[in-house]
């Protein structure tokens, strides 16, 4: 399996993401600069890392969402390829319309950086099949705009379609219903604020994140290699 790690001006978790999938998972991974003339068709999965794309000016992720490469990301998502956006990547996915809702300033208006316990609410996605439903995992968080918000109709739809994938065991930022990560209706686009790529080695404090990437690889093999 071959991943594209999309890099925008201000991305700072791209190397973490590359390390997680190449050195720990053992898959192929390449950095793709947002301005490169690159065809995302040749990749099996797309990763949008965290950071501060374009300095978080205007709104976090808003400028990156208008980059030409995001049109390709949308096209590949429509084809069913896995797309993972973490932290700023989650913000970009919402700004681009690939996921509903928005990420606002944390409730206390301060940047939060610490390990956080999460609950796996849906283990039937291509990103979470290696986890148990209700399992508690620990990923780091590092964000100032991680407060997930959506209106009541959208929240009802997220619940109805089982799109809420991760919730915070203890809410750090004010997110509605403790939401930490959601998928699209089709289940192939995941956005989450916590960083699974920073929880793939014991020396990082947790290995819980590697199972997310193992889930992607396992389900890709079932879908494409087996056929």
From TrEMBL:
Active-site residues annotated for this sequence: 87 (nucleophile), 195, 197
- Entry EC number(s): 6.3.5.3, 3.5.1.2
The UniProt keywords, alphabetically, are: ATP-binding, Cytoplasm, Glutamine amidotransferase, Hydrolase, Ligase, Nucleotide-binding, Purine biosynthesis
Oligomeric state and partners?
Part of the FGAM synthase complex composed of 1 PurL, 1 PurQ and 2 PurS subunits.
For this chain's UniProt record, which GO biological process terms are given? 'de novo' IMP biosynthetic process
Instruction: Relate the protein's function as given in its record.
Output: Part of the phosphoribosylformylglycinamidine synthase complex involved in the purines biosynthetic pathway. Catalyzes the ATP-dependent conversion of formylglycinamide ribonucleotide (FGAR) and glutamine to yield formylglycinamidine ribonucleotide (FGAM) and glutamate. The FGAM synthase complex is composed of three subunits. PurQ produces an ammonia molecule by converting glutamine to glutamate. PurL transfers the ammonia molecule to FGAR to form FGAM in an ATP-dependent manner.
Fetch the InterPro entries from UniProt: Class_I_gatase-like, PRibForGlyAmidine_synth_PurQ
Q: In which pathway does it act?
A: Purine metabolism; IMP biosynthesis via de novo pathway; 5-amino-1-(5-phospho-D-ribosyl)imidazole from N(2)-formyl-N(1)-(5-phospho-D-ribosyl)glycinamide: step 1/2
Q: Where in the cell is it found?
A: Cytoplasm
List the Gene Ontology MF annotations in alphabetical order: ATP binding; glutaminase activity; phosphoribosylformylglycinamidine synthase activity
Q: What is this protein called?
A: Phosphoribosylformylglycinamidine synthase subunit PurQ
- Give me the reactions it catalyses: N(2)-formyl-N(1)-(5-phospho-beta-D-ribosyl)glycinamide + L-glutamine + ATP + H2O = 2-formamido-N(1)-(5-O-phospho-beta-D-ribosyl)acetamidine + L-glutamate + ADP + phosphate + H(+); L-glutamine + H2O = L-glutamate + NH4(+)
Cellular component aspect of the GO annotation: cytoplasm
């Amino acid at each position: 399996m071959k991943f594209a790690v999309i890099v925008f001006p201000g991305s700072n978790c791209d190397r973490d993401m590359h390390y997680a999938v190449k050195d720990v998972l053992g898959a192929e991974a390449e950095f793709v600069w947002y301005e490169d003339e690159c065809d995302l068709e040749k990749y099996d999965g797309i990763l949008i890392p965290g950071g501060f794309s374009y300095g978080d000016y205007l709104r976090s992720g808003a400028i990156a969402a208008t980059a030409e490469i995001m049109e390709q990301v949308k096209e590949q998502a429509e084809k069913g390829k896995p797309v993972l956006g973490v932290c700023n990547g989650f913000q970009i996915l919402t700004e681009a319309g690939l996921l509903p809702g928005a990420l606002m300033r944390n409730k206390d208006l301060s940047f939060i950086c610490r390990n956080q316990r999460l609950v796996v609410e849906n283990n039937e996605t291509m990103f979470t099949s290696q986890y148990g439903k209700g399992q508690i995992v620990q990923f780091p968080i590092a964000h100032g705009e991680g407060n997930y918000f959506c209106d009541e109709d959208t929240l009802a739809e997220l619940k109805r379609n089982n799109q809420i994938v991760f919730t915070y065991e203890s809410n750090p930022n004010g997110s509605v219903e403790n939401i930490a990560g959601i998928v699209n209706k089709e289940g192939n686009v995941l956005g989450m604020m916590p960083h699974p790529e920073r929880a793939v080695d014991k020396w990082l404090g947790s290995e819980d994140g590697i199972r997310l990437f193992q889930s992607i690889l396992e389900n890709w093999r079932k879908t494409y290699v087996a056929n």
